[in-house]
From TrEMBL:
Substrate binds at S150, I151, D152, R187, M194, G195, R196, E250, R280, H286, V287, Q288, R289. It comes from Triangularia setosa. The chain holds residues 67 to 434 of 847 of the full protein. The lineage of its organism: Eukaryota, Fungi, Dikarya, Ascomycota, Pezizomycotina. ATP binds at G11, R74, C75, G104, D105, G106, S107. Belongs to the phosphofructokinase type A (PFKA) family. ATP-dependent PFK group I subfamily. Eukaryotic two domain clade "E" sub-subfamily. Belongs to the phosphofructokinase type A (PFKA) family. ATP-dependent PFK group I subfamily. Eukaryotic two domain clade 'E' sub-subfamily. Residues 1-368 are annotated as: N-terminal catalytic PFK domain 1. Catalyzes the phosphorylation of D-fructose 6-phosphate to fructose 1,6-bisphosphate by ATP, the first committing step of glycolysis. This is ATP-dependent 6-phosphofructokinase. Homotetramer. Residues 3-312 form the Phosphofructokinase domain.
Length: 368
């Protein structure tokens, strides 16, 4: 019987439980044994009861649970070869030769590294006398499939990451709540949202709530952004709008690569010599990650989980490590490392302040 393990890693996102449920059940449905690795790579490195065999009913009700019930962690040991060697040993002890990992670009980078190193890890285990060559024979080919769980929608090659629509829905809900009080008091609110290097959450939240002004990392405003923002807000006020909402991504920058902070924006809107608005800052923080997954993320988690198990079962030693994506509403397999490298290219372009390149890369992602 093939033994397939599933794990969640890196930052949690709504929908991860749906992924685990789908993978466990599809694996069992296909006649395999399903395992969960608890606490991300930490569970793989430490082994023992952090690697557990799962039954069909163990994941009952998981679709409507937030976060990840099998835990996630940032694991320093997995950055070191010794940690990955311990991970390989634990997998072999449990008879596992296929791994489905749901996480962000960091987790998927770790996965690719693990697979690339796998043959030499086996050699080292044999040389250390941990296993005989014969015992290792069935494990010659490690099969890894990635799934993208992230609220940021920051992975290249997929239109939506599992969790991003839940986070977006939560931001919209929070802004709706804020708007009622903003309107009542004629206030301005500067709302900071998550997203790291990616402005998707801020941009889409701005569109979905009709925000007055948006700041994202990939496309900094022109140098005169202060005047531009104030004149737009002033215009909206003149035509009778009693509330002002400015959405700012946590990674927002100006053209020189300096951070634009909510405080800077607040001070500008509140400036007595300018608009003089009663302005408050709301940092949504981890509220954006919490709660249950919206219907779209549950669907994505389930369809992609099923596809991940299919990809594991169809893989040959020649198959490149793949990540399950959604492109134009179709669930597809893509080379994992290309998706991760393209993602890093955007972050690097932003770091070098090559914003035209960052935007061109983002445009290419969505018009693929
Ligand atoms: P995310 O998956 O959400 O991007 P991180 O970047 O924190 O989150 O990565 C999660 C974990 O993946 C890390 O704590 C580490 O255990 C593993 N990991 C990330 N990058 C690497 C790498 N280059 N080599 C080995 N392991 C890695």
């Amino acid at each position: 019987k093939k033994k397939i393990a599933i794990m969640t890693s890196g930052g949690d996102s709504p929908g991860m439980n749906g992924v685990v449920r789908a993978c466990v059940r599809m694996a069992i449905h296909m006649g395999c044994d399903a395992y969960c690795i608890y606490e991300g790579y930490e569970g793989l490195v430490r082994g023992g009861d952090l690697i557990r065999k799962m039954n069909w009913y163990d994941v009952r009700g998981w679709l409507s649970e937030g976060g990840t019930l099998i835990g996630t962690a940032r694991c320093m040991a997995f950055f070191e070869r010794a940690g990955r060697l311990a991970a390989a040993k634990n997998m072999i002890l449990h008879g596992i030769d296929a791994l489905i990992i749901c996480g962000g670009d960091g987790s998927l980078t770790g996965a690719d590294r693990f697979r690339a190193e796998w043959p030499s890890l086996l050699d080292e285990l044999a040389a250390n006398g941990e296993f005989t060559t014969q015992e290792l024979q069935p494990f010659r080919h490690l099969n890894i499939v990635g799934l993208v769980g992230s609220i940021d929608n920051d992975l290249s090659g997929t239109d939506a990451t599992i969790g991003c629509y839940s986070a977006l829905a939560r931001i919209c809900y929070a802004v709706d709540l804020i708007e009622a009080t903003a309107s009542s008091h004629s206030r301005a609110f500067v709302v900071e949202v998550m997203g790291r290097h990616c402005g998707w959450l801020a941009l889409m939240a701005g569109v979905a709530t009709g925000a007055d002004f948006i700041f994202i990392p990939e496309k900094p405003r022109e140098d005169n952004w202060r005047e531009e923002m104030c004149s737009i807000v002033e215009h909206h006020r003149k035509i009778g709008k009693r509330k002002t909402i400015v959405i700012i991504a946590e990674g927002a920058l100006d053209r020189e690569g300096n951070k634009i902070t909510p405080t800077m924006v607040k001070d500008l809107l509140a400036d007595k010599d300018g608009l003089g608005l009663d302005t408050r800052i709301t940092t949504l923080g981890h509220v954006q990650r919490g709660g249950t997954a919206v219907a779209y993320d549950r669907m994505l988690a389930t369809l992609q989980g099923v596809e991940a198990v299919k990809a594991v079962l169809e893989a040959t030693p020649e198959t490149k490590t793949c990540v399950i994506a959604i492109t134009e509403n179709k669930i597809v397999r893509k080379p994992l490392m290309e998706a991760v490298q393209d993602t890093k290219k955007v972050a690097k372009a932003i770091e070098r302040q090559d914003f035209d390149e960052a935007m061109a890369l983002r445009d290419a992602e969505f018009s693929e």
